Amino acid sequence: MSCIIDGHPVESAPRPGQCLRTFLRDQGVFGVKKGCDAGDCGACTVWLDGEPVHSCLLPAFRAEGRAVTTIQGLAEGDSLHPVQQAFLDSAGFQCGFCTAGMIMTVAALDEHQRADLPHALKNNLCRCTGYRAIADAIHGVTAAQDDVAGEACGASLRNPFGRDIVTGHAAYTMDVAMDGLLHLKVLRSPHAHARIRGIDRSAAAAMPGVVAIFTWEDVPRRLYSTATHEDHLVDPDDTYMLDDVVRFVGQRVAAVVAESEAVAAAACRALVVDYEPLPTVFDPEAAMLPDAPVLHERGVTGGSNVYARIRGEVGSVAEGFAEADVVQEATYSTSRVQHVHLETHGSIAWQDAEGRVHVRTSSQAPFIVRQKLSHVFAMAVHDLHVFTGRVGGGFGGKQEMITEDLCVLAALRTGRPVKWEYTREEQFTAATTRHQMTTRVKLGARRDGTLTAIELRVVSNTGAYGGHAGETLAAALGTPISAYRPAHKKADGAVVYTNIVPGGGFRGYGASQTTFAVESAIDDLARSLGLSPFAIRRRNMIRPTDWIESIWSETSDVGFGSYGLDQCLDLVEQALASGRGALRPEGPDWAEGTGVAMATLECGPPTEHRSGAEMSLTPDGGYHLAVGSTEMGNGSATAHRQIAAELLQCRAGQIGIAIADTDRTPYDTGTFASTGTVVAGQAVALTAAALRDSILDYASRHLQVDRAECRLEADAVVCGNHRVALADLHAAGTADGHRFLARRKAYLTPRTVAFNVQGIRLAVHRATGEVRILHSAHAADIGRPINPMQCRGQIDGAIGMAIGWALCENMVHDGAGRVVNPSLRNYRIPSFADIPASEVMFADTYDRIGPLGAKSQGECAINPVAPAIANALADATGVRFAHLPLTPDRIYDRLGAAAR
Q: CA 79, CA 72: separation in Å to the nearest integer?
C-alpha cells in the first residue's frame, strides 16, 4: 500500500483486518494513541486528506493513495501549529494521553464548529482536565507566565514536558519499538467462582506463532497483594499470579505468549478449561452471614468473608445522643466506578545479557513494584529495574501490580521481550475499581444545630481480593467526621469479600464515599432544624485550636500547618450568592436548588511513606534533579522543578529532571495519597537547599570571601565583589575534587491538613429527571500554590470526575457477576458538554509543615462535589436522593414516588 504519512511517502502492506491506528504505530508514529479501540474516546484521531477520523475504526487499506496527518506532522518544522501552541500556553492537558487526538480534532474545526464546542468535541474524551483548560486553549485564554529566576514558586509555568506532549513525541509506556517483541494475552474466567479442574492447551499450543502458555501449574506459588504500599502488611496476601480457583468474572485463568497480539488472543480462545462452578455471593451483607460461601479458604479471613473490621470511639455516643434534642439517621450508598485513565494498564519486560530484568510499566509506584517482583520471583532486588515512561493517568488505579508479573515471567521463560497491554474492556472487567460502600449515619444535635454525636456504620465491598481494603475503610471511617467537633464520635466498619471485580485505590481513597454520606446527613439535619447549610457547618466545623480527632483517641502526627476552612466556606457562599452562572431553563417543570459540602484531607496516609531526591550542578552551569515520583498528569515534575528553582534562585528551565526509575532516581514509595508535593516535594526542597549550601560553601572557600557575603543568582555565584559563572565554578570545584552533589530524604511526618468546599446551583426537570449544573464554585485550602495554573487544573479535573461519579458513572453487574457495561460508550464518563466551568478559588494560607508553604491539592477536591450536588437536588425537590449515581431514571422514580 502506498500513502503519505506526515508528508513522507510510505510503502507498506497492512496486515489483513488491520486498522489505521495500529498500522501507523507499526510505522513508528507513536503519537497516535489507543484509549478504547472502539471509536469512543478520540485519542487516536488523525486527518485523512485533511478530515479528522478515528483511526481505530478505519481499515488501514483505506489510506491507499491518501495523505494521513498525525499530531507528529502538524507542526511546520520547529514552529508549532497555533492549536499546539495554545494548548501549551493554556496547559490544555494534564497526563496528555488524550491531547494528540484532541488537538487534531480542534485544529480541524471551522468557526461555526468552534461556536458549539459541546457538539464539536463530543467524540473526544479527557479524564484529567475537566475540559476547562481545553476550552481556555481553544478560546486563546493564556495563563502561562514567564520563567523568571528567583520567582518560580507561585508562578504558572509551563509543563517541562509540554512541547513533547502537544507534538506527540512524549513517550508513554507502549511508545517504543523493540526487536523480537512477543505479545501476551490472558484467558479470563467466565465464572464468578469456580475451581479449575484442568486446562487442555493442545490446540492452542499447536497454533503457528504461539511461543508459550502458562497456567497456575507453571507459575511461582507465592501469595502477594497487587496493592502497592510501603508497609506491605496493610494489604492481605490473597493473590496468586495464576490460581486454580477463580473468584470473579474476568480473573486470569491462563496466559499465552505469541508472535502477535492476534495470535495470542486466538490461542486464548482455543484453550479448553474444565471448571467446577462454586457457590457465589455478590452482596456484602449476605457475604457476612454464617452460611455464606467463603471465598478465601487459606486463612486470610479466618473462615469468613470479612477481611477487616475497624471500630473506634471517642467520648460516648450514647451520652451524646442522650444530650441531643434531635436525632437524624439515614443510610446512603455509593456506586462502584472505574478510574478510566485513558492509557490502559500495560508493561514491557525483557532480560539483558547480564541477566537483569527490565520492566517498563505504567505504574504509580515503580519501586514497590520492584519489591513485589523480587518477592514473587525470589530474585534479588538489584537484579530488577523498573521504570516508567510518561504515564497516561492513574487516579489510584495504577497503585497496583497487575501486568508486570506475567510480563516478567514470560520474559524469563522465553528469553525475549514481552508486552502486555490491557484492552479497555479489561480495564472494566479485570482491573480495580472504587470500593462500593453503604453508610448508615446517625447525628445528634441540640436545637441550635450544635452536634452532640456522630456515629457511622460502613460496609465496604472489596470484591474478590483485598488490595487497599483495610486502608480505604480506615479513611472512610475517620476522615469525614474529623472535619466536625462534637465530643462524641463512633464508627464501625467492615470490608467484605464478594465475587465481583476487586476494589482498589481511587482518588479520594475511601473518604469520598463516606463524605457523600456525612455531608448529605448534615444537610438533612440542617433542614430539619431550619438552619442554613453554611450556618450548621460553621457552628460545628473543626477550628484551628482544636485537636484533630476522628474515632481514635491515640495521639497522631496530624496537625494544622495552616487553616483555611473558614475562608473556603466564605468564598463559596459569596460565589453562590453572586448570581453568576447560568440561568434556570425556562418552563414550569424546572426546579432550582443550591447545595454545599465540605471535606478535609490528611496530607498523606497514616502508613509509612518516604521519598528521596538527588541534585547536582552540571558542567554547563545548569542543574539536574532526580526524584522517584511518577508523572501521570499530577504535575509533580513541574512542581518539583519550581521548588528547586526557588531555593537555587534560578529558572525552572535550568533544571533537567529524571523521574520514576529504580536505576536512575532515589527511592520513592509512590505517587499516591497526595504525597507528590508534601513528601517528594519536601525531599526536593531539602536536597536543593543542601546543594545551594554546597555551592556557596565552596565558592566562599574558593574566593576567600565570608560565607555570609555569598549568594546564588540564576547562572552565577556572587561573593562580595566577585561574580563567578556557575560553569566556571563547577570547573574549579572539579579540579579541587569538590562534588556539587546533594541527596536528601523526606518522610511523611508530621502531616498537615487540607480543606475543600464545593458549592453547586443546579436545575432539575421534574418530568424527566435531567440535571443541569448552572453554577459550580470550589474553594481549596492547599497552602501556597506552587503553580496556580496547574493547581486550578487539578481541581477542575477532580470536579469533573466527581460530577461523573455523582450523575452518571456506575459499573453494572448482572446476576452472574458479569460487568454488563465494560465500554466507554455504555459506561459513559463526562464529555465536554457535561462539565460546567467551575469557579476555583484558593484560601490565602501558608503551611508551616509542607514544602515552601504548600499542601496537597489534587485529591481532596473530589470529595465534596457529589454531596454538594445531592444537597442541591434535595434543595430543589424537597426529596433526599441517598444513593449514587443520581441518574435521570432514579430521580424520576423518586420524584414520582414522593408525589404519590
A: 12
Amino acid letter, 34: K
**Which residues are within 8 A (CB) of 233 and not within 5 positions of it... i.e. 6 or more apart?**
none
The 8-class DSSP code of residue 833 comes to G
Whether 133 contacts 799, CB under 8 Å: no
Q: At what angle do helices 636-648 and 681-703 cross, to 10 degrees?
A: 30
Cβ neighbours of 765 (radius 10 Å): 18
Q: Which residue, chain included where needed, has cell 514558586?
A: 153
Report the C-alpha gap between 475 and 23 in whole angstroms. 46
Residue 140 neighbours by CB distance under 10 Å: 10
Please name every residue paired with 691 in a beta bridge, in sequence order, or none if there are none: none
Q: Is this model's pTM higher than 0.90 or not? A: yes
| Of 436, 429, 434, the residue nearest 402 (C-alpha) | 429
Please list, residue by residue across 320-355, b when 16 or more beta carbons sit within 10 angstroms of its beta carbon and e when fewer do. bbebbeebbebebbbbbbbbbbbbbbbbbbbbeeee
- Judged by DSSP in three states, 884 sits in coil
Mean confidence (pLDDT) of the chain = 97
Which of 614, 751, 778, 561 has the alpha carbon at shortest distance from 675? Answer: 751
List Cβ neighbours of 592 (8 Å cut-off, separation of 6 or more): 584, 761, 762, 763, 774, 876
Report the candidate in 329, 335, 122, 118 with the shortest Cα–Cα distance to residue 890.
Answer: 335
Q: Answer yes or no: are the C-beta atoms of 382 and 367 closer than 8 Å.
A: no
In angstroms, rounded to a whole number, what is the distance separating the alpha carbons of residues 314 and 695? 52
User: Which residues make Cβ contacts (< 8 Å) with residue 497, sequence separation at least 6?
Assistant: 247, 287, 295, 296, 301, 305, 306, 307, 462, 463, 464, 465, 466
> Beta strand 182-188 with 488-497: parallel, antiparallel or unpaired?
unpaired
At residue 621, the 3 state secondary structure works out as coil
In whole angstroms, what is the distance from residue 681 CA to residue 884 CA? 36
Residues 6+ apart with CB under 8 A from 257: 182, 183, 184, 210, 211, 212, 213, 214, 264, 410, 414, 418
Q: Which runs of E-coded beta strand occur in 264-315?
A: 272-277, 306-314
Overall average pLDDT of the 248-269 stretch: 98
CB atoms within 10 A of CB 710: 20
Count H helices, E strands: the chain? 26, 31
CB 783 within 8 A of CB 846: yes
State the residue for C-alpha cell 566556571: 728
Listed residue (853, 721, 736) closest to 786, CA to CA: 853
Digit-coded pLDDT (tens) for 513-533: 999 999 999 999 999 999 999
Task: Convert the pLDDT of each residue in 869-883 to its tens digit.
Answer: 999 999 999 999 999
CA pair distance 492, 484, nearest whole angstrom:
18
How sure is the predictor about 302, in pLDDT bands with cuts at 50, 70 and 90? Answer: confident
Instruction: Give the Cα separation of 363 and 345 in Å (integer).
Output: 8
**Is the bond into 208 cis (omega within 30 degrees of 0)?**
no
Q: In the β-sheet with 710-712, what is the strand arrangement from edge to edge? A: 710-712, 716-719, 722-725
- 403 touches 411 (CB < 8 A): no
Is omega for the bond preceding 588 within 30 degrees of 0, making it cis? Answer: no
Length of the chain: 900
- The C-alpha cell of 677 is what? 508535593
CA 714 to chain centre: 35
